């Protein structure tokens, strides 16, 4: 299992949950009555649990969080260690459309909402990208943006890709690696794609961390719905005008 080889069995080896939590701004959150959140690539759930405490303290006391990961061993470990009533863990390859739709739809339904208040994706985009190519990364970003009111991403920079591929070359091959067109500027490309193609707006970014990542905060742009409401009104007016 790649996670075993990379020593990701207990989260990210380069930083602790507390170090990430300390970087989260306190002022950007919407004051929802209830907060429903998703953590994609939750690993063994350590960071997920800390995110839940953060959301409860800073967004809403009423907060449910679903952590998903492709690795069933990690999800078992996350479930065994889980003591919170409102944190759930489920095994899911986020790129598997059928399972994703079922699991996400059921969880949202259970929480009486059609969108997550916030979706986290810490240090996971590189694995999605390496395993699914440029198109896979774009599909991932589109799908994550679609289900989130707020999207928080910590992408790995290109040098992590080179290090991972080199480190794993004897045991694991990434056949799509050499074909990737999104490379050196992958963090900028992710940001640009979310803004240009996924209807998101960047609201904050952290400084580069000591583990050489930045956390980027996006919010769903509501202009489209406002614009379509205006257009609808205009069309209605025109129909009314031509009727009279
Ligand atoms: C580097 S770890 C990050 C763990 C945690 N988010 C953190 O930052 O501490 C990346 C995680 O993404 C998971 N992952 C990779 N591809 C995935 C996919 N397609 N769907 C869900 N999880 C995935 C891996 O199993 C791994 O646990």
Automatic annotation (TrEMBL):
Keywords: Methyltransferase, S-adenosyl-L-methionine, Transferase. InterPro entries: Bin3-like, Bin3_C, BIN3_SAM-bd_dom, SAM-dependent_MTases_sf. Its EC number is 2.1.1.-. Belongs to the methyltransferase superfamily. It comes from Molorchus minor. Residues 1-223 form the Bin3-type SAM domain. This is RNA methyltransferase. Pfam families: Bin3 (PF06859).
């Amino acid at each position: 299992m790649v996670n075993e080889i990379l020593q990701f069995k207990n989260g990210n080896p380069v930083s602790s949950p507390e170090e990430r939590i300390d970087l989260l701004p306190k002022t950007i959150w919407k004051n929802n009555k209830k907060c429903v959140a998703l953590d994609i690539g939750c690993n063994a759930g350590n960071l997920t649990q800390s995110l839940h405490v953060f959301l409860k303290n800073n967004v809403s006391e009423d907060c449910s969080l679903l952590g998903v990961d492709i690795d069933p061993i990690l999800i078992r470990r996350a479930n065994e260690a889980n003591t919170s009533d409102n944190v759930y863990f489920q095994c899911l390859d986020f790129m598997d459309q059928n399972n994703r739709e079922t699991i996400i739809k059921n969880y949202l339904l259970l929480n009486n909402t059609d969108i997550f208040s916030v979706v986290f994706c810490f240090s996971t985009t590189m694995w999605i990208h390496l395993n699914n190519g440029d198109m896979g990364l774009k599909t991932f970003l589109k799908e994550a943006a679609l289900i989130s009111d707020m999207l928080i991403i910590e992408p790995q920079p290109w040098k992590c890709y080179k290090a991972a591929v080199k480190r794993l070359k004897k045991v694991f091959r990434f056949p799509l690696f050499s074909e990737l067109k999104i490379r050196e500027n992958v963090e900028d490309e992710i940001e640009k794609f979310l803004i240009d193609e996924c209807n998101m707006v960047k609201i904050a970014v952290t400084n580069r961390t000591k583990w050489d990542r930045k956390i980027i905060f996006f919010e769903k742009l509501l202009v489209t719905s406002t614009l379509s409401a205006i257009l609808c009104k205009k069309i209605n007016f025109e129909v009314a005008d031509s009727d009279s």
